[in-house]
Amino acid sequence: MTKKQACLLGGTLILSAVFITQSCTKSTNNDSDLIGNWTKASDFDGNARSEGVSFTIGDFAYISTGTTDRDRFKDLWEFSLARNYWTQKADMPGSARNSAVAFAIGPKGYIGTGYDGANRLSDFWEYFPSQNIWTSKAPLPGAGRYDAVAFSLNGKGYVSCGYDGNYLKDLWQFDTLANQWTQKASIGGTKRSAATAFVINNNAYIVSGNNNGEILKDLWMYDGTADEWTEKRPIYNYSSDTYDDNYGSIARQNGVAFIMGSNAYLTCGENGSIISNTWQYDPGSDSWAEKTGFEGTARTGAIAFSLAGRGFVMTGRSGSTVMDNGYEFHPSAEKVDGD
């Protein structure tokens, strides 16, 4: 058992926005002991937008789809981390859309579902970067949906939750070789849309989201090998211990997550209003630590991705204003204003 886990189990870890009690500061991982810092990253070269999607392949990130208050998009942009610039690639076929999902498997990326302004969509498209071509794939079974989540595990793609006229909690697995969808075990708990998904240590997590106007305060882990969901600790102050006393700002809808090292980071989104709180999740101890809030304009409907162990947040909207700027997070750095 690590010292951090011992502190949690003893109920002596006290989280706050600015410090962690001295009793746990000698952990071998110092990320949770420091505030963290956001710095400006390369602006997105495409049109400003919210509710787009992203996926990563190697050292490249891709952004596509999204919306403003007037337009929807289906353009595709590639970001080179090594060269720090964007290149426009072939447009995605099908309808321009927002609130779609995306994932990558091996050398290819996949985008599907979403809303085109009139229809909830179920189509799926495969992108092959080395040839810059798109191929139509089998549509997601059932009615079209938007505000779902997606992830990849063990060479398979997954889509879950969302809204098709009703809130959903189903889970579908996509086999790219067979071009076939298979229904798997539904997420436990409540149906939801606009949740956030991330993958760490070969397990997928779905956190929070919205059901009938209620922001959900739960976190679920999916084991793809066993096809089983496990509920993790609630993300609010539910226990008599002190570790969750400040968990009140974790729950949200339309948030984004990225992975750095052995931790996940959740930021942006909305819960009654647009928020910028940033939280670090440690799957080993099933605990959250608040980090420096997102330092750009608070936003919802952003996108996030990780490249070479670095975490980025881009685009999004605040009210009617959509954005094309981006930020990089440095979890173990001291906060510096204006950088």
Structure description:
The protein is mostly beta strands and 339 residues long. Helix content is 2%, strand content 40%. The chain has one helix spanning 3-9; strands at 37-41, 53-57, 60-64, 76-80, 85-89, 101-105, 108-115, 120-128, 133-137, 149-153, 156-160, 171-175, 180-184, 196-200, 203-207, 210-211, 214-215, 219-223, 228-231, 256-260, 263-267, 278-282, 287-291, 303-307, 310-314, 317-318, 321-322, 326-330. The chain starts with a helix and ends in a 9-residue tail after the last strand. Residues 1-34 have low confidence and may be disordered.
Share of residues in strands: 35-45%
Mean pLDDT: 91
Number of E-state strands: 28
Number of helices: 1
| Rg of Cα set | 19 Å
The helix-strand sequence is HEEEEEEEEEEEEEEEEEEEEEEEEEEEE
Determine the structural class based on helices, strands and strand pairing.
mainly beta
Shape, principal axes of CA atoms: globular
Residue stretches low in confidence (pLDDT < 50, at least 5 long) are: 1-34
Question: Can you summarize this structure?
Answer:
By secondary structure, the chain is mostly beta strands.
